[in-house]
Specification:
Strand order of the largest sheet: 1-2-9-4-7
GO molecular function, one term: protein histidine kinase activity
Largest sheet: 5 strands, antiparallel
Structural class: alpha+beta
Shape: rod-shaped
Catalytic activity: ATP + protein L-histidine = ADP + protein N-phospho-L-histidine
Protein name: histidine kinase
Helix content: 40-55%
Strand content: 15-25%
Distance between the termini: 15 Å
Radius of gyration: 36 Å
EC number: 2.7.13.3
InterPro entries: cNMP-bd_CS, cNMP-bd_dom, cNMP-bd_dom_sf, HATPase_C_sf, HATPase_dom, His_kinase_dom, RmlC-like_jellyroll, Sig_transdc_His_kin-like_C
Number of domains: 3
Length: 486
C-alpha cells in the first residue's frame, strides 16, 4: 500500500449550513457565517486504507471528519507510531495553525492521518480557514498568536540560556582540567632548571677533582646506563618503593654519601637497587669521588624524571585541546560519517570534572560497529545531556555505564546509571518540553526534549528510557544508513 496521499476530488456545495451546524466546531456560528463556510468548503471521500495526510507535507488543507474511522500517527525513526484512533464526528486536523501570521516558518502537517474504513470529510483550504479565523475572531487570534509566539520565544530563550550554562560548565571544567597539567609542567620546569644547574656544578667539581679521562668516560657511560635503566624500570607498589628507599638510604649512609636519604627516593623511582650502586662504586674507582658522582647521577635521574613529567603534562594539555575540538566539531563538516565512540570519549573528557572521583565509568564499546551518517556536534549535545543527567541522578556516587552495540540496522548507544530511577508515572513525560524532575532552579526541562528532537527528527533514530531503581538506561538508536527523503 502506498503512503503517498491520493485525495479524491473534493465536491463543493454538498454540505448545507444546517448540516454544518450539526458539527460541534461550527454550532455557535451565524447563518451568514455558515453559508460562507459552505461556499468555501467541500466534501471528500477517502476509501478504507487511504492516506489522507502525510507527516511533513505542506499543510494546505483543514479536515473535519463527517463519518468513518481514522488513525493519527507520528514518525519515530523509521517507524510509524499510531497516536490516536477515533470515529468521533466533527473532530478536526490538518492545517490547524494556518490562522497564525506568516513568520517565514513553513507550515507542515505535524502528523499523518489514514482512513481505517471508508471516511468522509469536510475540507477547507488553509488560506480560507486562516482568513475566516482572522476576520471573524480577531481577539481570539491575537490571544492565540500571543500564546504560541510567547511559548516559542520562551522556549528559545530558555534553550539559549541552557546552552550558555552548559557551555559555561564545560568551559569551567575544561579550564580546571587544563590547569592541573599546566601547573605541573610549570613546577617541573622550575625544578628542572635547578637540577640542570646542579648537574653543571657537580660535573665541574668532578672535572676539578682531576678524574682520569677513562674514569670520566666511564661515568658518562654509567649515566646513560642508569637513565636507560630508569626508562625501563617497572612501577613499584608503595610498600616495594618504601623498602627499596630504606635499602638505598642505608647503603648511602654506609658509604658516607651526603643527603643520602633525600637521594634514595630518586634512585628507587628510577629502578636502581643496591647491586647497581655497587657497580657505580667500581666504575668511580675513588671513594673520594663517590659522593659527587652519586649526586651527579641523582641530578641526571631527576632531570629525566622531570622531563617525563613535563612531557606527560603537555601531552595531557594537547589531548584535552584535541578532545575539545572533537567535541565542538569546530573544524569539521556539520554532517559526516562518524564513529560514535569518538564523540562519546570526547564528551567524557569534557565532563571529567563534573563526573568526579566518586563515579566509576565503565565503557563497554563494540569496536566493530560501522560508521553512521550523523551531525556529530548535535549528537555530542545528546551525550552531554544524558551523561549529565546520569551523574546528577547518582549524586556523585555510583557507576556510569556507556555501552554500544548493533541492533538490526541500527547502532545503539546505551547510557546507564545506578541512581534511584525514574518513577513509573513519570517515564512517559521525561521527553516533554519543560518537564523536569529536578528541584526548582536546577533544570529547564529542555535537555531531554532537545535530545529527542536531535535523535528522532534530525537523525531518523529513536531514544527510549528503561528505568528501575539502581538501573536506569537511555538507549539511543541511530540508523546505519541515511534516512529516506520520502
Amino acid at each position: 500500500m502506498s503512503d503517498t496521499p491520493v485525495l479524491a476530488p473534493c465536491e463543493p456545495g454538498l454540505l448545507t449550513p444546517d448540516d454544518l451546524r450539526t458539527l460541534f466546531l461550527f454550532e455557535k456560528l451565524t447563518d451568514e457565517q455558515l453559508r460562507w463556510i459552505s461556499d468555501h468548503g467541500c466534501t471528500m471521500h477517502m476509501p478504507a486504507g487511504g492516506v489522507v495526510i502525510r507527516e511533513g507535507d505542506p499543510a494546505t488543507q483543514f479536515f473535519v471528519l463527517l463519518s468513518g474511522t481514522i488513525a493519527l500517527s507520528r514518525r519515530v525513526g523509521q517507524d510509524e507510531v499510531q497516536t490516536n484512533r477515533t470515529e468521533q464526528r466533527g473532530v478536526y486536523m490538518g492545517a490547524t495553525q494556518s490562522y497564525l501570521r506568516d513568520d517565514g516558518v513553513p507550515r507542515t502537517y505535524m502528523g499523518g492521518m489514514r482512513a481505517l474504513d471508508d471516511c468522509d470529510f469536510f475540507v477547507m483550504s488553509a488560506d480560507d480557514f486562516g482568513h475566516m479565523m482572522r476576520e471573524w475572531f480577531p481577539m481570539a487570534i491575537h490571544l492565540l498568536e500571543g500564546l504560541v509566539m510567547g511559548m516559542r520565544t520562551s522556549a528559545a530563550a530558555i534553550s539559549e540560556r541552557q546552552r550558555l550554562q552548559a557551555l559555561g560548565a564545560l568551559s569551567a571544567g575544561l579550564m580546571h582540567e587544563l590547569n592541573n597539567p599546566a601547573a605541573a609542567a610549570s613546577r617541573a620546569t622550575g625544578a628542572l632548571r635547578q637540577r640542570v644547574a646542579g648537574m653543571r656544578h657537580k660535573l665541574g667539581m668532578l672535572a676539578a677533582g682531576k678524574v682520569p679521562a677513562d674514569r670520566l668516560d666511564a661515568l658518562v657511560e654509567l649515566q646513560e646506563e642508569v637513565i636507560e635503566r630508569a626508562a625501563k624500570a617497572p612501577t613499584l607498589t608503595a610498600m616495594q618503593a618504601s623498602d627499596r628507599e630504606d635499602e638505598l638510604g642505608d647503603w648511602m649512609d654506609e658509604h658516607r654519601v651526603t643527603g643520602g636519604w633525600d637521594l634514595a627516593p630518586v634512585f628507587a623511582q628510577a629502578g636502581i637497587d643496591v647491586d647497581c650502586l655497587d657497580d657505580i662504586v667500581v666504575k668511580v674507582g675513588s671513594p673520594d669521588l663517590l659522593d659527587q658522582a652519586i649526586h651527579w647521577l641523582g641530578y641526571a635521574l631527576e632531570t629525566e624524571q622531570l622531563m617525563t613529567d613535563i612531557e606527560d603534562a603537555t601531552g595531557r594539555v594537547s589531548s584535552l585541546v584535541n578532545a575539545a575540538k572533537q567535541y565542538s566539531q569546530m573544524d569539521r563538516a556539520a554532517h559526516q560519517w562518524i564513529d560514535v565512540h569518538g564523540g562519546l570519549k570526547s564528551t567524557l573528557v569534557m565532563l571529567t570534572h563534573k563526573i568526579g572521583n566518586g563515579i566509576d565509568v565503565v565503557k563497554d564499546f563494540d569496536r566493530s560497529l560501522p560508521q553512521i551518517p550523523a551531525h556529530p556536534a548535535e549528537l555530542n549535545q545528546v551525550w552531554t545531556n544524558l551523561i549529565d543527567n546520569a551523574v546528577q541522578a547518582m549524586n556523585g556516587v555510583g557507576t556510569l555505564t556507556l555501552k554500544t552495540y548493533r541492533e538490526d540496522d541500527h547502532v545503539v548507544v546505551s547510557i546507564g546509571d545506578t541512581g534511584p530511577g525514574v518513577p513509573e508515572q513519570l517515564k512517559k513525560r521525561v521527553f516533554e518540553p519543560f518537564f523536569t524532575t529536578k528541584p526548582v532552579g536546577e533544570g529547564t526541562g529542555l535537555g531531554l526534549d532537545i535530545s529527542y528532537r536531535i535523535v528522532v527528527n534530525g537523525h531518523g533514530g529513536d531514544i527510549v528510557l528503561d528505568s528501575k531503581p539502581g538501573d536506569t538506561r537511555f538507549m539511543v538508536r541511530l540508523p546505519l544508513t541515511e534516512p529516506s527523503s520520502a
